[in-house]
Amino acid sequence: MLHILQKTFKGGIHPPENKDISAAKPIERLPLPGYVVIPLQQHIGKLSEALVQAGDDVVTGQPVSKASGFVSLPSHSSISGKVKSIESFPHPLGQKVPSVIIEGDGEDRMSEQIKFQADYMSLPPDEMKRRITEAGIAGMGGATFPTHVKLSPPQDKPIDTVILNGAECEPYLTADHRLMIEHTEEIVEGFRIILRILGVSRGIIAIEKNKPDAIFLFEKFTKDDPNLELLPLKVKYPQGAEKQLIFASTGRRVPAGKLPMEVRCLVHNVGTAKAIYEAVAYQKPLIERVVTVTGAVKEPKNIRARIGTPLRNLIEFCGGFVGTPGKVIMGGPMMGVAQYTIDVPVIKGTSGVVVLPSEQVREMRLQPCINCGRCVKVCPMNIMPNLAATYIENNLWEEAKSAGALDCMECGSCGYVCPAGRNILHNIRFGKFMILEQEKASKN
User: Fold this and answer.
1) pLDDT at residue 441, as a whole number
2) Is the same domain home to 250 and 298?
């Protein structure tokens, strides 16, 4: 069922999309890398525990680490070869993380467990969830929350609506768009698996209206399913953020500091749905993903890359840099993380690599807040970013908390519109860390 009315949320911004650079580029498979770096931390939660040691022979899809708790995930070898070492290695999120380094043999020998099961939809929900857990699937929209945890809501918080997130509102990124065009049926099947596991009969497929080809295909594959609704969304950033998407799709507001299950909703990314389909139907672990490489590269592309592949390989596959790069960002320009080396690996949450030319990167001269209120107007969480940031600059942690600092979703809209060039987002991130650290200390 297709809803014609476009829905959205209060606040938000309209940065240049720059999606036309790569939106029409079909997904290309990256050649196997000579080595991969598999971090033991690719998800929110506890670090996973290594199962292999230097010298071990591994095949593609073999677990190389196991979950260390409920909110944790295993990782798998994305190529076949030999374990070279387990050591701390630079991670795309900035720190060094224990990682399994595997030298490939070029043969891509697959785990024998990866095979298609035609009657996968008849599997019991618990078996479906077990396969998803063992596949090591984390949210592939960037948040990397363990998927099996999302699929296990408490009994006192029943879910009645699941939203499939096809917004992809970050500028430049088109990986999800290409997935929706080229793998529509697999994504829909993955969504149906999610609904079956949760015992939910209402599924909403939310796609921004700047992807009419994807909307057309999802209408084709879902028009006869009474449990699935197709919802075109107004183009606005951050439309794909969880709480904003829930409000736009259902009119329900997730309370401050609470999770979507408080309003009987869950949200899953389209890439996650495809990975769920592969895990349940093929018992295939999460060993690859689609990454948009765009900006100042010779040939922007959407690339299917193995987890653990150095970003350098993806950039070289696109012909290398054009001119002198000013910044290389993993993710989008609004919420992504600038990299200090392109030897960091692709991880489960790597949706894109955006290369900004040096002429587009400049150091802002910070000026005092002029109280114009622009950041307040665009904040999708309805907090006062200017006030929270000012409190944090003056080490007033309790006041910053009262101003809503912990509710900040870190979308960066405030900094984007600030005429004074204040580091509002960075201040609030730091403040959130300090507030939580103080709360931990007070409990001890």
Assistant:
1) 84
2) no
List the chain residues with pLDDT less than 50. 4-5
Strand partners, 311: none
pLDDT at 212 (0 to 100) = 97
- Please state, as a whole number, how many other Cβ atoms lie within 10 Å of the Cβ of residue 96: 11
Q: How far apart are CA 43 and CA 36, in angstroms?
A: 18
> Which tokens sit at 80?
């076949």
Q: Are residues 124 and 79 in the same domain?
A: no
The tokens for 111 are 């785990």
Q: Is 6 exposed, middle or buried (0-12, 13-18, 19+ CB in 10 A)?
A: middle
The reply to whether 150 and 197 lie within a common domain is yes
Q: Residue 30 is which amino acid?
A: L
What pTM was computed for the model? 0.94
Q: What is the DSSP string of 237-302?
A: BTTTSHHHHHHHHH---PPTT--GGGGTEEEEEHHHHHHHHHHHHH---S-EEEEEEEESBSS-EE
Cα separation, 239 vs 165, whole angstroms:
10
In the prediction, which pLDDT does 257 show?
Answer: 82
Please tell me whether residues 419 and 379 are part of one structural domain.
Answer: yes
341 and 381 fall within a common domain: no
Percent of the chain scoring above 70 in pLDDT: 99
Q: Contact at 8 Å (CB) between 91 and 39?
A: yes
Which residue type does 399 have?
E
Which is it for the CA torsion 39, 292, 304, 198, positive or negative? positive
Q: Which domain holds residue 378?
A: 374-443
In whole angstroms, give the CA distance from residue 352 to residue 346. 9
Strand residue runs (E) in 33-192 = 35-39, 49-50, 57-58, 63-66, 75-76, 81-90, 96-104, 161-166
H or E element in which residue 442 lies: helix 424-443
DSSP tally for the chain: helices H, then strands E: 13, 17
Token digits for 186?
A: 């697999």
